[in-house]
Write a sequence for this structure.
């Protein structure tokens, strides 16, 4: 068993999810590699000490990420910090020669993202990937398999989205995602967007233009003192795009919503084609809807329960239901697999790349320009 020694920078919710995934590694079958969390860093030492108390392999707890990066026994880093810290910390991680799985959006804006890409180019032996777990749901993974098999025919149109509803409550306390200084001008696009564009970009569906509809639904929220303060960032975004590939053109609708009533954590993708149409949503995690079509034949959607089967085999029986923590475990397996085996990965779906994150930055930058001009903006 090859152990990949990880440091975690940012010990909040997603850092704890990684710790849980590492602790459940035996859930995966027939792998000869595993992550081992050996160091943690957070500005709030109480958050870092959560790991010290629960993860026996942790030997370094610090509030100085440079101390973690100087540790020669650390192979890789998972970094989950607010967007305004991405450029500096990600660049330092890469220059330190540590492999990186970082949270989206890989920089607060396009300039910050370009600084990260420059560091990657200067350090080609460092593996850098972006966290995006939803494509590892069995239904989403199957939709991707059908793309690789060329089963859709000519694409008619595509819709993808990621919707939350917790921010519908106007009394919810303001956080860093509501401030331009820490979240960036992208608002919900930076926070949710890579999840929405990950699969379309992986399939080669790059928008050639965008018309953006952006909305601020709740204008102010209480701070820690109970004072009402402005919400500076976008709550919801709907992006209408045209896709042009070498052999076809079609419309694509992308939506990112922090305020979508009734949706706790809904990610979905829908692909309509001349030979096959299909859709998957985490609202119904066991089901894939599909419509195979032959000319002159019937047009009937069918709903199929998908077995508990994703990129990597597990000890769980196929009749059981797959969940968010399972998707995170699968994503981590893909990252570790690529780190250990490179192009000889055990299965073909790898984590979101820095180049895909960069494409998302260009899209969201164009979307902001579209909002200002109230017009369709061509992608640079």
């Amino acid at each position: 068993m090859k152990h990949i020694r990880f440091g975690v920078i940012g010990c909040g919710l997603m850092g704890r999810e990684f710790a849980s995934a590492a602790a459940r590694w035996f859930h995966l079958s027939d792998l000869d590699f595993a992550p081992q969390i050996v160091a943690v860093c957070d500005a709030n030492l109480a958050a870092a000490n959560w790991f010290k108390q629960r993860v026996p392999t942790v030997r370094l707890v610090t509030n100085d990420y440079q101390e973690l990066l100087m540790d020669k026994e650390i192979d890789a880093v998972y970094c989950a910090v607010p967007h305004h810290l991405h450029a500096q910390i990600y660049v330092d991680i890469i220059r330190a020669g540590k492999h990186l799985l970082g949270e989206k959006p890989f920089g607060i804006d396009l300039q910050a993202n370009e600084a990260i890409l420059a560091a990657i180019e200067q350090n080609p032996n460092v593996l850098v990937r972006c966290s995006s777990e939803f494509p590892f749901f069995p239904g989403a993974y199957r939709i991707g398999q059908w793309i690789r098999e060329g089963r859709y025919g000519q694409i008619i149109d595509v819709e993808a989205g990621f919707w939350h509803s917790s921010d519908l409550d106007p009394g919810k306390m303001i956080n860093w995602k509501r401030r331009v200084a820490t979240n960036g001008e992208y608002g919900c696009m930076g926070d949710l967007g890579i999840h929405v564009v990950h699969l379309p970009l992986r399939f080669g569906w790059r928008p050639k233009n965008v018309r953006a509809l952006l909305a601020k639904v709740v204008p102010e929220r209480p701070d820690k003192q109970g004072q009402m303060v402005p919400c500076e960032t976008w709550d919801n975004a709907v992006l209408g795009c045209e896709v042009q590939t070498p052999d076809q053109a079609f419309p694509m609708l992308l939506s990112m919503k922090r305020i979508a009533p009734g949706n706790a954590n809904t990610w979905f993708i829908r692909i309509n084609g001349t030979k096959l149409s299909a859709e998957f949503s985490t609202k119904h995690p066991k089901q894939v809807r599909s419509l195979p079509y032959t000319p002159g034949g019937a047009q009937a959607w069918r709903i199929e329960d998908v077995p508990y089967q994703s990129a990597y085999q597990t000890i769980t029986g196929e009749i059981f239901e797959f969940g968010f923590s399972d998707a995170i475990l699968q994503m981590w397996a893909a990252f570790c697999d690529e780190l250990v085996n490179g192009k000889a990965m055990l299965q073909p779906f790898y984590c979101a790349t820095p180049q895909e994150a960069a494409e998302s930055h260009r899209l969201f930058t164009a979307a902001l320009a579209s909002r200002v001009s109230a017009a369709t903006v061509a992608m640079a």
Summary: DSSP finds ten helices and 17 strands in the chain. The chain has two domains: 2-130, 134-312+353-373. The CA atoms of residues 241 and 275 lie 23 Å apart. The mean pLDDT is 97.
